[in-house]
Amino acid sequence: MMSCKCTYAPNSSHTTCSNPLPPLVKVSSAFSRDRSFNRRHVVVAGVSIFWANVGTVAVAAASMSASMLSGSNSARKASLFVKRGMQLLVQGNVEASLTMFENALLSDPRQKPYLWQRGLSLYYANRFAEGAVQFREDVAVNPNDTEESIWCFICEARVQGVENARKQFLEGNAEDAKSAILAACRTPYGLRSGDYMASLAKVHCKCRGWEL
């Protein structure tokens, strides 16, 4: 063990030691450079990981954005097809309207339960079973819509037979029904409103050869 003798000088504020402790060893410049080098590597690695994560997030965000944009474009295209189909049905072109509604479904199949216009065109194209399916899907997502429920029943009645339909719902007075529809078409509202269902009543008359 190293021994140390300390002497105090009265006229001095310092104490002298016969065996002073060795000075602190200086870190070599090479070691300092190595530590600096290591720090740089850590920083570079950290920055690389950060930007890699940023890149991953950016790619995911871009993918999500593209997916949302694609869905938005599909819905927009479907909406245009539906509008065109409605115009064609108002003009009495049932088959062409159906083509537009089918195009709408191809563009955005999610619209299927809400495409009641397609159900109307299917009915007037005498495709009653398909019309019933369309209206049933509509009623499933909107059970409070009694109009679609009635159209669904009418389609099913045409498939199952008039007698069964009469027993369940319909009164079966065809002449009274014809008179009521013609009268509705001839009202000022029926003639000039441009309402889709008022126009549908005219299509109904046209498909049955009724003179307005």
TrEMBL record:
It comes from Ceratopteris richardii. The chain crosses the membrane at residues 42-64. Gene3D superfamilies: Tetratricopeptide repeat domain (1.25.40.10). Signal peptide: none annotated. The keyword rRNA-binding does not apply. It comes from the Eukaryota. Keywords: Membrane, TPR repeat, Transmembrane, Transmembrane helix. One of its GO terms (cellular component) is chloroplast. TPR repeats lie at residues 78-111. This is Uncharacterized protein.
